[in-house]
Design brief:
Blueprint: E1 11-13, H1 20-23, E2 32-37, H2 38-42, H3 48-65, E3 69-74, H4 77-84, E4 88-91, H5 96-108, E5 111-115, H6 124-131, H7 139-150, E6 154-155, E7 158-159, H8 193-205, H9 222-235, H10 260-265, H11 270-282, H12 288-312, H13 330-333, H14 343-355, H15 360-373, H16 378-388, H17 397-405, H18 422-428, H19 449-460, H20 462-467, H21 472-479, H22 484-493
Parallel strand pairs: 1-2, 1-4, 2-3, 4-5
Antiparallel strand pairs: 6-7
The protein binds flavin-adenine dinucleotide and iron/sulfur cluster (SF4).
Flavin-adenine dinucleotide is lined by residues 256-260, 263-264, 297-298, 301-302, 305, 359-360, 363-364, 368, 385, 389, 391-392, 396, 400-401, 404-405.
């Protein structure tokens, strides 16, 4: 719906578009409208800290933009726009539902025009050109083209160092005889009067939330995001790649950047993060595998997931190729970590309860793996990830949860399901030594729920797995298990994880 928009048309920013790239540049002269819609806060059962970061971000943007900005508190967005009384310009929002909503507002005359989303590196139309008539997508192809296009870690036409991919170096288990990586703590913003007010307002609103309240751990302004990025590059980037796939019970942040919140709010631009990492390599502060590993996450995975969200379309999130119908258990939904015996799962649920955040491998290989094994309904799970995590936004869920984690798209995104037994978790974490279960056992009181659950998963999905070259062997191994019937019976009766 492009058109010409008047110079004095104000700009409406959603809470995930609080980016200088959105309100600066060609829009630097516009007044800015920000909206706090109470219906959006009440619509779902969000993590308390998620609501805090979103409100804090909006109110900080209002303060930082000074006279330019008007923050309207209203029941919903339509009421806010009607109250504001002037048609607005808005950037393309970040979900299918919001896009349909903005189209409706445009027809009603409340939205004057829609500009492209400025919070990702690659414009949507450029991805569609890249996608062309492809029917199979490989992140690696996309990532290499992103490197070329944005000239990141390039040496002429080839990659710096002669290789595009340092994944093989980036899969180390946690260091032995250490409880933590021994890094300085991650950047933590200082809370201010705005945070205090947000906390008071959230208390007063008496919302139905999950998780505990706690100090704000994530950057919500461009200035804080810059500090968080600098701190990460200085202290964590050098060991980022190496331990990217590892889990340590006593080290919740490890080498991760904690930048997903500022990136998803828009207060940090992905190219700024990527360029800061590249500069650290150029000044020999961090080795190539670490820097490449980090850049791959942002210029590769994050952008890829964003664009596939649009490319696969709104029906993608309804996929349930493995017919997984089990409801999420109450202990899971209420983040009752104390009800969990399995150390790896208890630690991951504790992270979600206390911070609304766990790192990628806990999301994929502990939480996602457990849900996949137990056939939790992928749509319910998507909703859970979107609401229980501080960085959960609609666009990021379907490809990560339906696709990567639950294989509910039948393999459109990943060539095989991310299912694994306790042996993998034992290798990549230091949890099993402290656990009441034994990762080597699939039968008995101390049978590891991941090891036994893996065979339950293979059994339930044997036809699909037998057809896939990468998983066929699991089925033949399962067929040789003499105690399979007993394992399946045990897991069908299991009440405790
Ligand atoms: C089941 C599941 C659910 C997830 N839910 C979310 C979510 O709600 N919000 C979210 O931003 N990410 C999500 N991710 C991706 C990833 O786990 C988080 O981005 C990351 O853990 C955030 O922590 P970090 O900023 O320290 O990341 P780092 O480990 O420091 O990585 C750097 C950045 O790379 C980006 N990134 C890496 N992988 C992905 C990916 N697969 N999708 C999108 N961005 C990626 C993120 O922006 C992240 O900040 C999910 C992954 C899985 C498997
Ligand atoms: S033994 Fe099993 S349940 Fe316990 S920590 Fe290891 S993988 Fe997790």
């Amino acid at each position: 719906m492009p058109g010409t928009v008047r110079d004095d048309t104000p700009l409406w920013l959603f809470a995930d578009q609080l980016s200088p790239a959105a309100y600066g540049g060609e829009h630097a002269h516009r007044e800015v409208l920000l909206v706090e819609a109470t219906s959006a806060l009440r619509r779902r059962r969000y993590h308390r800290q998620k609501l805090h970061v979103v409100l804090s971000a909006l109110r900080h943007a209002d303060r930082d933009l000074g006279d330019r900005a008007t923050l309207v508190q209203a029941k919903n967005y339509t009421d806010a726009l009607e109250h504001y009384g002037r048609p607005v310009l808005v950037h393309q929002p970040t979900s299918h539902a919001a896009e349909r909503f903005v189209e409706r507002l445009h027809r009603q005359g409340l939205v004057a025009d829609v500009a492209p989303t400025p919070t990702f590196a690659l414009p949507r139309k450029d991805f569609e050109m890249w996608a062309g008539t492809r029917t199979r997508f490989r992140m690696e192809d996309f990532y290499r083209d992103q490197r070329r296009r944005f000239d990141i870690l390039m040496d002429g036409r080839g990659p710096v160092g002669g290789r595009w991919n340092y994944d093989p170096e980036n899969r180390e288990p946690p260091p032995k005889k250490q409880q933590t990586l021994g890094l300085p703590g991650p950047y933590q913003p200082d809370e201010d009067d705005i945070d205090a007010r947000v906390r008071r307002d959230l208390d007063r609103m008496n919302l139905d939330t999950v998780g505990v309240d706690g100090p704000r751990l994530f950057a919500v302004t461009p200035t804080e995001a810059q500090h968080a990025l600098t701190h990460f590059v200085e202290h964590r980037l050098p060991s980022f790649g190496r331990y990217e796939d590892a889990i340590m019970g006593q080290d919740w942040a490890m080498s991760h950047s904690l930048l997903s919140v500022p990136l998803n709010l828009g207060v940090l631009h992905p190219l700024d993060a990527v360029e800061a990492a590249e500069a650290a390599y150029n000044r020999r502060h961090a080795e190539l595998p670490a820097v490449e590993g980090f850049i791959r996450q942002i210029l590769g995975w994050r952008e890829y997931m964003w664009h596939l969200y649009w490319h696969f379309g709104p029906d993608y999130e309804n996929n349930n190729a493995l017919n997984a119908t089990a409801p999420l258990p109450d202990w899971w939904k209420s983040l009752d970590a104390d009800a969990v015996t399995a150390e790896c799962l208890r630690d991951a649920i504790t992270g979600v309860r206390d911070r609304g955040w766990t790192h990628h491998i806990q999301r994929l290989m502990v939480l996602g793996n457990h849900a996949l094994q137990r056939a939790y309904n992928p749509q319910e799970l998507t909703e859970w990830f979107a609401t229980a995590f501080v960085d959960g936004f609609r666009w990021v869920m379907p490809t990560n949860v339906i696709g990567m984690s639950q294989h509910a798209d039948g393999g459109m995104l990943a060539t095989k399901p991310y299912a694994s037994g306790g042996a993998y978790i034992n290798k990549m974490s230091n949890h099993c030594g402290d656990c009441a279960y034994d990762p080597k056992k699939r039968l008995g009181d101390d049978a590891c729920p991941f090891t036994a659950g893996y065979w339950q998963f293979v059994h339930r999905n044997r036809d699909m797995l037998a057809k896939n070259n990468r998983t066929r062997r699991s089925v033949s191994t399962m067929d040789r298990l003499k105690d399979l019937e007993a394992v399946l019976e045990q897991e069908a009766d299991r009440q405790q994880f």
